[in-house]
Every structure is written in structure tokens, then in C-alpha cells.
Design goal:
The chain is an alpha+beta fold and 111 residues long. The protein is built from 3 helices and 3 strands. A hairpin with a 4-residue loop joins strand 1 and strand 2. The relative contact order is 0.15.
Length: 111
Amino acid sequence: MAHAKTSFVCLPCRASYKQPYPTREHNDRLCPRCAEPLIHVGSAFAAPRRRDTAAWRMLSLLLHAGVRFHKSCCGGPGYRPRTLGEARARMAYARATGEPFAKVLVRYEVP
């Protein structure tokens, strides 16, 4: 049986790679195009098209906030905002309430 794989992303190249899960010995992965470190995003990740700059900008915002795409027990990583407008509204809510930005980004509904 083949080993399970997970997704890694290179933001400068706008590329996604499926590779075996990181281990203690082999944790650092490098992009084959630019040799920059890859970011482990999780196994429930679906990469946007390379030319979709808005989607990659949104992905960069999510990854820098600490949001990843790991599977939960019942199907997928949960809610993730798809546009910068949604993210801005959630950021304003996080500032107003003092709730962590990463937590507000993954909520299904913001009051």
C-alpha cells in the first residue's frame, strides 16, 4: 500500500506539490523550481490555477495567518474565505472583538 501524501505550496512560484508527510528527520522541503522552503498546507488542499492572482493572494493571507487545510473527521477542512472582501470584513470583526484573526477566518458565520 502506498504511503499517504499531503500538499506543500511554494507561494513565490504559485505551485503545489504532493509529497509524503513530514517526519522528524525530513521536515524541510524545498521548491524544485526556486529552492525556497515549501509550506505544509495539509491534505485537504486544492490549489488555485497559477494565473489566478486573487486566489493566490487570498491563500497567502490565510497561510500567513496560520490557517491550514487539514482534514477534519467529517469531510474537509471547514470554511475558508474565498475573497479578500470576506477576509477584510472578518479582520474588522477580529479587531473590534479582540478575537484572534486565524480563529475568525475559519468561522462559518461572523455575527
